[in-house]
Design brief:
Layout (H helix, E strand, L loop, with lengths): L4 E5 L5 H10 L3 E5 L3 H8 L4 E2 L11 E4 L4 H9 L13 E4 L5 H13 L3 E4 L2 E2 L2 H5 L4 E5 L2 H14 L3 E6 L3 H30 L3 H9 L6 H12 L8 H17 L5 H17 L5 H5 L6 H8 L23
Parallel strand pairs: 1-2, 1-4, 2-3, 4-5, 5-6, 8-9
Antiparallel strand pairs: 7-8
Helix pairs in contact: 7-10, 7-11, 7-13, 8-9, 10-11, 11-13
Length: 321
Amino acid sequence: MGGMKIGWIGIGRMGFPMAERLLKAGHDVSIWNRTRSKAEPLAELGATLVDNPSDLAGVDVLATMVSTGKDVEQVYFGENGVLSGDKTPPIFLDCSSISQDQSAHLRARLADRGAELVASPVSGNGKCVKVGKLSAVCSGPRAAFEKVEPVISTLAPMGVSYVGEGELARFCKIAHNIFLGVVIQNLAEIIILAQKAGVPRRNFLDFMNNSVMGSIFTRYKTNALVNLDWTTTFTPELLRKDLDLGLGAGRALDVPMPVTAAMREALQAHFGAARTRDDPEDYLRKDFAALLETVALGAGLKLESENSPYPTGLEPPEAGG
């Protein structure tokens, strides 16, 4: 395993720290990113930077962490793509969040080249990656998964769950993001309920985090919710897309999902509320936790930062976290 050559494509909010983890663990990693300068700091850790995706065609496993299914298809099959020449990496590992249909299409095209696809979407943000609190769900051929499991475990030390063949991991990721949406919406509602009764947000969330209902998620979102810091980890638009995919799957499989449907409409209200702002497009690029402001608007509350930093639980040890 130590001799496995890894090709990596995608150096964004998630991709950079993920590739960094592989390099720090001693893996042989070659990297392509559309904006080369973003990848240059990784060269200092031993990464080989290449000029085109096609330069990665000789690796043992080709890993991707990009924005959309179209991006994955482009770097695989597009001009100067990994597969634009004669060589084919035997295993493709995709950590991006894409739809089941897109994934199945890519899997079929890769099979025509004799390659296997392991879908490995992840749970967590860039800070989770840095402090080793990322987890992953995987699907695809079992033998291919077992070959790349040590790579995935380096990326996601909190846990790697293999759920079966085909695109089942994509399905699990959509279910995960539905839960993310439902939790943030209900959390926003009870925060505003408590605040309108007179409880400061920090005090209420401190109680919740220490209760049986607290989680890694509620703790690391507390600082944002208390101080109205909407630095983007996940956008409302991406959340809406996943809710729609989940509701579509529910209809196809005859699963009633009334809570998800209510969340979808609550989220749509956030899009409407954004239109009343001076910067609607910029506002909708902010983090999905800004839903708190929409709930407050409905309750007749004008929110202000409490200026009270709260530990996220994701601070690196050297920072005293």
